[in-house]
Amino acid sequence: TYVVACRDDPTVQFVNSQLLYQALLDKKIPCRFAQYDKGGHGFGMKNNVFMKKEHWNEALKAWLIETGFLPSSL
Q: Whole-prediction pTM value?
């Protein structure tokens, strides 16, 4: 499970992402928690300021390759 959360999200409380991540760790479920101070909610894959600055999807891709969910040739 790859959790991405921004502390300034006005829709989903950041603490909920922290709790989810801790629950995953407690159950020994492979996970990564990418935390950002700013980015809001629903930034997705849009070509916006957040994406241009943070490139969170590249970190996700690297994690998916690292865990074997994607082949390393991508």
A: 0.81
